[in-house]
Sequence to fold (232 residues):
Amino acid sequence: MALLPAPSIAREIFADALPSAERYAEFLAGPGVERGLIGPREVDRLWERHLLNCAVMAEVIPADATVVDIGSGAGLPGLVLAIARPDLSVTLLEPLLRRTVFLQECVDLLGLPNVEVRRARAEEAADEFAVDVVTARAVAPLERLAGWALPLLRPGGELLALKGERAAAELEQASAILSEFGVRDAEVLQVGHGKVEPPTTIVRVVAGKAPQPSGRRTSSRRGGRRRGERKR
Fold:
């Protein structure tokens, strides 16, 4: 299927960054499909189903936030958010080499100074980050995702997980682990009203101060601030 032109609403969502979003869409529809990062049947709906659906998440991300995108894959939603919001500092966290190669090529192609590509699993990098926001799309059920994402957040930071119809059910099923991590708040939000149809559904979880399991390494925390952690 051929890549369709950007819909008119894309200009409102991406503003001056629309040319970068268009180049990214073209790269997804070409090398992204050829390398198996996105299915060929998705090309004709890249804008509505993928780019715009992810970009409207920016509505609930504060200015100048530090962001870690878990399991970035083809860059959804992390790379899209970095394009739409150049004020964000985004780390794309992806364990598979072929995907990190693709992501780095995208970053180089688009000239995005606010993005770092990191090959690692979230649980391996937990001691390195204390960011404002963690994002994820189609990575895992919230019950598992929370255990990977919450250790990457500063107290008061937010996990924003893009979910579908089962968002409320997943949130309920994850109640035990959310309680274990001492989260401050958790809710289901819809963003992008009037811009995408249907609106994008997000599970928002606000991190508390996570318990420190016995035997967990803490040296990186004692030695200084983790990446994304701000001076108090």
The chain has nine helices and seven strands. The mean pLDDT is 91.
